[in-house]
Amino acid sequence: MNLKKLSKILGLSQTTVSRALNNYPEVSEATRERVKAAAAQHNYRANIRAKSLATGRSMAIGHVIPISTRHEIVNPIFADFIAGAGEIYSRNHHDMLLSVVPDIDEERTYRELAAKASVDGVIVHGPRQNDPRIALLKSLGIPFVVHGRTSDGDTDYSWVDVNNRRSFERAANFLFDLGHIRLGLINGLEFMDFAKRRKDGFLAAHKTRGLHAHPVFMATGEMTEGFGYNKAQSMLGDPNPPTAFIVSSMIMAIGVRRAISDAQLKMGRDISVIIHDDALSYLPNGADIPIFTATKSSVHEAGKLCAQMLLDIIDAGDQTPRHTLLETDLTLGESTGPAPK
Amino acid sequence: MNLKKLSKILGLSQTTVSRALNNYPEVSEATRERVKAAAAQHNYRANIRAKSLATGRSMAIGHVIPISTRHEIVNPIFADFIAGAGEIYSRNHHDMLLSVVPDIDEERTYRELAAKASVDGVIVHGPRQNDPRIALLKSLGIPFVVHGRTSDGDTDYSWVDVNNRRSFERAANFLFDLGHIRLGLINGLEFMDFAKRRKDGFLAAHKTRGLHAHPVFMATGEMTEGFGYNKAQSMLGDPNPPTAFIVSSMIMAIGVRRAISDAQLKMGRDISVIIHDDALSYLPNGADIPIFTATKSSVHEAGKLCAQMLLDIIDAGDQTPRHTLLETDLTLGESTGPAPK
DNA sequence: GTGAAAGCGCTAACAT
DNA sequence: ATGTTAGCGCTTTCAC
Predict the structure, then answer these.
(1) Under 8 Å CB-to-CB from A242, ≥6 apart: which residues?
(2) How far is the CA of A15 from the C1' of D16 (A)?
(3) Is the pTM value of this prediction over 0.85?
(4) Which residues contact A194 (CB under 8 A, 6 or more apart)?
(5) Domains with residue ranges and CATH for chain A
(6) What band does B296 get if pLDDT is binned at 50, 70 and 90?
(7) Average pLDDT over residues A188-216
(8) pLDDT band at residue A279, thresholds of 50, 70 and 90?
(9) Within an 8 Å CB–CB cutoff, is residue A208 touching chain B?
(10) Residue nearest to nucleotide D8 (CA to C1')
């Protein structure tokens, strides 16, 4: 079914039918009703490509996922984010175009998206220091929103990010308030922006308390179970070990728990644990893992916000940068208790 | 830059330029070279929507991801699959359209995709028993490939699946060959097709050996760390416990290991473990988890195969069902050893 | 309030 | 080997 046929059936012009369907004011209510009924009856949906061609808007947002060489974009995070963004898109009748490309081809992909006019805007994932994509997209004139920030000076673009620094500062302060003095930090790789900010927050909390963060108690590395295990184990082996851990992801925390269990310690009594994880949903029923006690935020939420921000920018036709900084929730559980005597 | 301008610059007709760019044979080599050079120079890319409108092909494949109510489609699996499929698409100049929708709206989404003519075909994720989507897509006449199978009779559609049954049969037989007699199975929810097939394979191996699989040693439930821990712990508490586990996912295996560690057993000596996981990549560096010893296959591979199959079907214009059954690799490691005396 | 006609950027049949 | 023309399905002036 297409406009032509539908208008023929109705005995109206294509123009009127189009106007009725698109809620133009100049159509009489009677006609509109009749048109909409007929459209529904014949399951008519405007051909999106024809529509795009005529309007110059593609009604699609692009997500470019660079693959392989680097793994800054951890899969589960990405899935959660996409789910959030997707919700917003479908609610606003936009499509989501996913390009999974070797990171070498990333620039070419952006150029193509722009030249082929297949999207109205793009979301940038996993920003790096001085990220070249930002300059590229600016020069291409295509609206974009970055999920995360680069740590360098230039923040002259739109972004949505979690307040990682503050989140870790709060977690540390919370433990200090419970009487803990020696905290262990199990963190991700520090060349990743979020990990650096988390460490900064951790250090800031120490500073205001006049405490010293022992370098040995600040581990940075791949976010794996094994890494969490190894680092927690070695920290616990210290003659003067930490009495609490702040862990940068659930998967590492699982390793931390194993180390605690090996050391015959009881969580919440002998040792406390706080986890920060943005994407708990990738561990189905993550919460049934008894270690769970976390500062909780959500990439899912970030996905929604990025998508909404981008649509707003496109809608407004105004590209002055916007920023959203997400705060985290501190949810407590049985794995966190006062410092042991 | 568009065709019109480009052809004007070249002093040729749009037709010739189009033909040159699309590698039509009737264009002279000299012209083609000239045209391609100019196109490259001006960074010309055909407007994809105009092209689609003219050709009737959208050059896009749809993936509909139902969200929320059910969680059969575990995020990480999905991410890995998408990455594989995406590779194939970009290699073949297709776009990937992702629709994340509440599962209630799934049918409507398919109808829309068809009516709006926004995709040339779709991939169906997470098939259920007597899945209504299959009938729907057939009636809509839109080419599709299913990732997985429904267990019911009707396999009159194209699918790509892993040979779960055979994989678990082999794993069990491998352990039997090592002298194990009592095996524990830690499996996913059995209403999910793959879990059922896995159990079938497990049982089949027992049968050919004349062995009896104790129901208490076959656990089925949510694929979480906690579930793996609880079940392994209770099985190990049996007066006559299993000497080996076959585990249906890495995350459950992490729980299994914790239980083993709690029980003061040494893996590979006192107790063996084999893991089957289709999507190891979602645990970054999954292999550094020392428990790792797995029958390994890959959803990533499945994604590629689904995508390729769908493109072939679309290309051939022939919808007779095709099937691909993926076999798994059995990779051994230090967590698997002979049965203890 | 409704319609006729042009045009979005491309491809494809039909010339030549 | 190249050009002319029509048309894909829609929106959008412009006219009535």
Answers:
(1) A180, A182, A183, A184, A217, A235, A236, A271
(2) 14
(3) yes
(4) A148, A162, A164, A188
(5) 60-162+299-326 (3.40.50.2300), 164-296 (3.40.50.2300)
(6) very low
(7) 92
(8) low
(9) no
(10) B54
